[in-house]
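Researcher: Hi, I'm a grad student and pretty new to this. My advisor asked me to get structures for two proteins we've been looking at. I'm not sure of the right format, so I'll just paste the first sequence and hope you can take it from there.
Model: That works fine. Here's the first sequence with its structure tokens right after it:
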Amino acid sequence: MPPNLSLFIFLLATMAYRSLSVGVNWGTTASHPLPPAKVVELLKSNNITRVKLFDADPLVLEALSGSNLGVTVGIPNGLLRSLNSSKKAAQSWVHDNVTRYVSSGGSRVKIEYVAVGDEPFLQSYGEQFHPFVLGAAINIQTALTQANLDSEVKVVVPCSFDSYLSETSLPSKGHFRADVNRTMIQLLTFLSKHNSPFFATISPFLAFQQNKNISLDFTLFKVYTKAHNDSRRMYKNSFDLNYDILVNALSTVGFPKIGIVVSQIGWPTDGGPNATSHAAETFMKGLMNRLRSKLGTPLRPRDPPVETYIFSLLDEDQRSISTGNFERHWGVFTFDGQAKYRFDFTQGSNSLVNAQNVEYLPSKWCVVNNNRDLSNATASALNACSVADCTALSPGGSCSNISWPGNISYAFNSYYQQRNQSADCCDFGGLGLITTVNPSVDNCRFLVQLNTSLSDTLHPASVSQWITLLVTAILLLLPRFT
């Protein structure tokens, strides 16, 4: 092959892969979050070019300054009411969380989107946020225009996986939920007016959990799985199926051409059946191959997603588990930035790069003292798990096979680590014992937490989730402690 021709082909291939718009969600609902500067290093070392945030944490945005990463900043649902009712509040928010960062010269943050709300139409929220979403979005848009940023920063509203559905699982029957349909039409009119895309979660994992007609092989992009037929349109995987359910829902309300950004998609690795690293690796490799093909779906054959954001970058031990115990294990990386499986965000590599020089607390663990009367150990473990993360003990979890009193030790250690290894947090009425011998068993990892000053108190987002966590933890763990 002539040298010039081979170079031309190489450049074409490089341009094609560079144009693959895949980013990650970076959540911080963790008791000991990895320092923001370390996370930015992790993003860059894995050639991740876009990141979606759930808030506008100043420490995170400062770490992103000068990184040249495309950033989506988020507005929590709790702010929607005030931003809907006050243009001044919207102006203040844009000034404090957008303008000050995009106008900093060489150290600027490349903010591309403002996400108004965090899936405010999630069915479990009821209608509590519905009246405020559109007004908040309009006021934020007006504030961006006044700041001369409207051509640079788009306003979007991330929509949950359950805001659209098909009772028959056929894309041709896809529609929005009745309670959000009117609001969705208003939102789509607003987005179209400002040339903003539609942000939506696609969750093959949850679709598989909730639909007995969808097989695991179909969900994991297995080649020889049985295709689903919808009016002679053949679907070979769950991603295409769910994407076209959304496409049909958009078409039904009059917006067949609006651009779609997959704002969240991923696979958890712990906390329940089929939530494993092996399944996650299979799914993620299948998804990336699907996205790299640049092919559309049966309903949009030439129109693949504008962008796709993997959910999530890191595990978060304070996320709500109301949907399931797997909610704390969506990360491609563990809480400390270590890859869970072989996978890559770019063509040409088959592995991820771990976070480097991570600072941990001392190599100490809290376990049950087998020389004591353990008749009351179950109650102590339940108390520990009402605050700490014990989701790995749930059925199908990585620690579900350790027997009593090993599961008591796991609960004790989770609490001890979350409390920064304070000696009195391994007392449990004399039932706890501090050891320097790692008690991990097979795939069940007894953690040593990160050494970070940010962990002195529980993450604010976890406060509102405490009651749900307590009840769920008791229901989850009671059978295993008997």
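Researcher: Oh nice, that was easy. Here's the second one.
Model: And its structure:
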Amino acid sequence: MVIRVFIASSSGSVAIKKRQQDVVRFLEANRIDFEEVDITMSEEKRLWMYKNIPEERQPAQGNPLPPQIFNDDQYCGDYDCFFEAKESNTVFSFLGLKPSSASKESEP
């Protein structure tokens, strides 16, 4: 299983850049293997991301904004979902991974 974080390397939005960095730094700090997928460099990858986000998670207007997180082809969520999982110490479940022994999720 590979966690894939869809990002936009050339985003003009400071908020989007900070959200992307927050996700990437968290994954790196917790030694979670992941792959960054830059949607600005590949139309095919951008369209794949749009197509594989469930309809109920699509924004009312426009296209979904990065970062978007997948476990292989399974959609995990966007930054807001990631942030909620981080705040409630359930990121491993959010990502579809088994909790690490250092995680509060592994406690009974």
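Researcher: Is there anything I should tell my advisor about the second?
Model: You could mention this: Strands lie at 3-7, 34-38, 68-71, 74-78.
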